[in-house]
């Protein structure tokens, strides 16, 4: 009854579980490397479906207008719909599957707990314990996802020069990264950029750091800071 009363949430729960399943079989290619590539695409397509359903839930009345598009781009679900479309037809990259896998796992765990509560407050204690441990590590998981999002930017450039990526991919991914940096719901991308800058500045200001390395890093920090969008 609980599942039928929340059909859209249940559909997203099933698609997230399927995303976790496909992502796991890509990261751990138990069925062979050839099959792993197909699971990579399935995971991203399932994530695109989940993101589209979530976006529909957040913005139910679609309008073909600039105002609606601007509103949609503020939603994290829209960001990951774009993310899935960026990588679904690209060369499989393990780094790119981790955000999809972990976000799906976190959201699926939250809804699984609701399903267990609807069934019985004491049902499946072992599973409940695993869900609680996952929830306790949520902040670390979100930081890890943000780290993946950041380091995928140079990875897309490397893929371009190695012949495994398209010319447009780094530019479209840069747009995705600016959306994540400006996210209202998830500040972890901004936080990670700040923490990485502090760590790098601390290291290059040590006397043992060569001058040319210090200048190179400071130029890089200045360049990245100029590319960062303004956050209200």
UniProtKB/TrEMBL annotation:
Subcellular location: Membrane
Membrane topology: Multi-pass membrane protein
Coiled-coil annotated residue ranges, if any: none
Key word Metal-binding present: no
Keyword annotations from UniProtKB, A to Z: Membrane, Transmembrane, Transmembrane helix
Chief location of this protein within or outside the cell: membrane
BP GO terms, sorted: endoplasmic reticulum tubular network organization; membrane organization
Keyword Transmembrane carried by entry: yes
Gene Ontology CC: one annotated term: membrane
PANTHER family for this protein: TRANSMEMBRANE PROTEIN 33 (PTHR12703)
Family: Belongs to the PER33/POM33 family.
Name the UniProt record assigns to this protein: TMM33 protein
Biological source species: Callaeas wilsoni (North Island kokako)
Gene: Tmem33
């Amino acid at each position: 009854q609980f599942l039928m009363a929340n059909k859209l949430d249940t559909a997203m729960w099933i698609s997230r579980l399927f995303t976790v399943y496909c992502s796991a079989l890509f990261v751990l290619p138990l069925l062979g490397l050839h099959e792993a590539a197909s699971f990579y695409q399935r995971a991203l397509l399932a994530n695109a479906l989940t993101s589209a359903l979530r976006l529909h839930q957040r913005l139910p009345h679609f309008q073909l207008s600039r105002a609606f598009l601007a509103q949609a781009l503020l939603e994290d679900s829209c960001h990951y719909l774009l993310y899935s479309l960026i990588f679904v037809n690209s060369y499989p990259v393990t780094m790119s599957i981790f955000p999809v896998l972990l976000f799906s796992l976190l959201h699926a765990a939250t809804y699984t707990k609701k399903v267990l509560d609807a069934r019985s407050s004491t049902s499946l204690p072992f599973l409940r314990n695993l869900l609680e441990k996952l929830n306790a590590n949520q902040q670390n998981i979100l930081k890890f996802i943000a780290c993946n999002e950041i380091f995928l930017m140079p990875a897309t450039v490397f893929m371009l020069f190695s012949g495994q990526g398209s010319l447009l991919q780094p530019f479209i991914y840069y747009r995705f990264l600016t959306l994540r940096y400006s996210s209202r719901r998830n500040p972890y991308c901004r936080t990670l950029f700040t923490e990485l800058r502090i760590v790098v500045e601390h290291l290059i200001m040590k006397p043992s750091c060569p001058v040319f390395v210090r200048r190179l890093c400071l130029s890089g920090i200045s360049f990245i800071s100029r590319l960062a969008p303004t956050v209200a």
